[in-house]
Structure formats: C-alpha cells, structure tokens
Inverse folding.
C-alpha cells in the first residue's frame, strides 16, 4: 500500500530529525491519508463504471481506513 510507504518514510524522517517517537508516529499517520475527492470527481465526470472503477473506489476507501487505524 502507498499509505504504509508514506507512513514509514515520513515517520522515519521525523524521528531522525526530532528523536521523538510519538511525534514521528503522529506525523507518519497524518501523512498516510489521501484525499479521495479528486479520484471521485474524475470518475463522476467521465461517468466511469465497471470493475476497475469499483476496485479503485475500494482502494481509496481502504487507504483512508488504514490512515484512521494508524492515527488511532
């Protein structure tokens, strides 16, 4: 997942700079969230339907759910 990659990269960078694990974990969790608005707008504009569209919406939803789990 891209969310885990962003989390790992940002958390590692913040930890190396601040040496504060709680701060690194919070920034890592916040960085893993993505905005689904652009994806949903493009799909709506082109009236996209089908298995790829369904899978794409599921991935966007799972990405946001994962970021909520990381933040909690």
């Amino acid at each position: 997942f891209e969310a885990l990659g962003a989390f790992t990269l940002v958390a590692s960078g913040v930890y190396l700079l601040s040496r504060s694990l709680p701060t690194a974990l919070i920034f890592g969790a916040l960085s893993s969230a993505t905005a689904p608005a652009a994806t949903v707008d493009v799909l709506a504009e082109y009236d996209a339907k089908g298995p790829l569209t369904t899978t794409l919406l599921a991935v966007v939803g799972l990405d946001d759910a994962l970021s909520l789990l990381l933040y909690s």
User: Anything to note?
Assistant: The CA atoms of residues 13 and 24 lie 8 Å apart. Residues 2-71 form one domain. The helical segments are 2-18, 21-31, 37-45, 51-71. The radius of gyration is 15 Å.
